[in-house]
Amino acid sequence: MISLTDRTVRLAAVMLVGCCWLTACGGSDGKAATQNDGVASLVTESPASTSGTAKADPAGDSSSSSDSSSESKRPQLRLDSTAEDVAMYRKAYADCLTDHGSPTKTSGEPTKAEVKAYEAARKACVNKMPLMPPEFSPKTNPHYADDVRKEVACLKRHGFKVHITPATGSDPNAIGWTYDSIPGEGVDIEKIQNQCRAEGYGGGAALAPGAA
What we know:
Residues 43-81 are annotated as: Disordered. It comes from Planotetraspora phitsanulokensis. This protein is mostly helical. The protein is globular. The chain has helices at 6-17, 68-73, 83-99, 112-124, 144-157, 189-201, and strands spanning 53-54, 162-165, 176-179. Helices cover 35% and strands 5% of the residues. It has a 3-stranded antiparallel beta sheet with strand order 1-3-2, with helices on one face.
């Protein structure tokens, strides 16, 4: 799986936390750790990679400043996308960010100048930012809440301690889930999450946590 540097992911987190653009602000349009932005993007949040909360609007667009022409050119991931497909799109986006001056250092916290550079690169590369499958968004999947419940049930069967979080907006379909505790050592968290994602949504196992 292609992933961006730790530095770039931190930059993404800095840019996205305040605006709740990532996956899981209680079923709204985001979460402070990774998803709608093609950089720090997770289809399902991994406690090994961030804070442990998950879900919301993975298919949503984190770039409100992008124009319709750029939006129409964004690659569309699907539930049956292969790992090779996902890696190809993620690499293209990562390479674009680098080509447009996104910082790539891996130590220390990002400076204001670096955050600004990352944001400029992100806007320039919005047409290469992969869109998550429409099934992963409560806006485009009328059965989203049911799919989330199936995913959570699967996680629980595998011994994960998680619970459903209610929608914070006006759409009752936009529920989420969060970890009550992080699984112990020796548990392949990513493998189980991928398996349960596929069970809940009927596909998407290749869309593992990572840049995208």
